[in-house]
Write a structure and sequence with these properties.
Distance between the termini: 36 Å
Order of helices and strands: HHHHHHHHHHH
Radius of gyration: 18 Å
Number of helices: 11
Shape: globular
Strand content: under 5%
Mean pLDDT: 80
Low-confidence stretches: 1-8, 14-71
Structural class: mainly alpha
Number of strands: 0
Length: 288
């Protein structure tokens, strides 16, 4: 993606947000059915606690290490050859759209719009050549359309449908992930562990005072983790039931931290407990 196109996109998005809520942007992708039923990932945005039940609490452990969440760790070069890195990058995009759907349904159009447009330049453009080399149909136009709908404060069903079209496109892109010798259960578990860690890190930031973007980012990562775990539950359990128990326990804690897309839980778990649960997941899934 050229720098010129990147600048042009952001200029258009800024103008749409500040000056002209009716501007329609993005190239035509009408062949994608934006009225398709909710994918399992969009369902999880509305009810992210559905799978995080029944897990056992883990042993004591140390808090997770790493950065402060966000797009840190999305590595385009690695994503070109490693299915884990490739799917993590897609799940970071998904997390933003799941969070945006939740925010828009809660009446926060501005935050939703930011969630929808943020990963275009931050993630998608860096992966565009990789997507092309893996025969993934471009979906940046769908991403821009979702952002424009939210900026324009269109009716909730229209905005949700536009965001769901992006989720559907990312699911198609996921089917083109690079191959590896790693088991499918192992790949799914590692990606889930990464989303859990991001959600825990963002929760720590939100509890420290950044209750705006950090909270919504964390809610999105939690929703993405829950959705992927829900889809891969049986394969992970069959491979290692104890690893699944750690995943389920961490998601249960995250559900208590992020009960909805509106605000943090008033009496949520301590950040250290979430980071410890995240670390237990990382250790448990490393050998799958």
């Amino acid at each position: 993606m050229t720098q010129w196109r990147r600048r042009r996109l952001w200029t258009s998005l800024s103008a749409a947000a500040l000056l002209s809520p009716t501007v329609a942007m993005g190239h035509d992708q009408g062949a994608v059915d934006v009225d398709a039923p909710l994918s399992h990932m969009a369902d999880m945005a509305a009810a992210p606690l559905a799978i995080a039940q029944g897990g056992e609490g883990g042993e004591g452990g140390e808090g997770g290490e790493g950065g402060e969440g966000g797009e840190a760790g999305v590595d385009p070069e690695r994503a070109a050859r490693d299915p884990i890195a490739y799917l993590i990058a897609l799940d970071v995009i998904r997390a933003h759209y799941l969070a945006g759907i939740g925010a828009y349904r809660a009446g926060n159009a501005e935050a939703a719009a930011e969630m929808f447009v943020h990963p275009i330049a931050e993630i998608y453009f860096d992966l565009e050549k990789i997507f092309a080399s893996h025969d993934v149909r471009p979906f940046d136009g769908l991403m821009v359309r979702a952002g424009d709908h939210a900026f324009s404060k269109k009716p909730v069903p229209e905005v949700v449908a536009a965001a769901e079209a992006v989720l559907k496109a990312t699911e198609d892109a996921a089917s083109h992930a690079p191959e590896s010798d790693r088991s499918k259960a192992g790949v799914e578990a590692e990606v889930t562990a990464d989303m859990i860690e991001r959600a825990a890190l963002q929760y720590r930031l939100a509890r420290a005072g950044d209750a705006g973007e950090a909270f919504l980012d964390g809610y999105g990562y939690f929703s993405a983790a829950a959705a992927r775990a829900n889809a891969a539950k049986e394969s992970i359990k069959a491979k290692d039931s104890r690893a699944w128990d750690k995943i389920s326990a961490a998601l249960d804690l995250l559900g208590k931290a992020y009960p909805n897309a509106e605000r943090l839980a008033e009496n949520g778990p301590e950040p250290a407990a979430l980071l410890a649960a995240s670390s237990r997941v990382a250790l448990a899934v490393g050998g799958l």
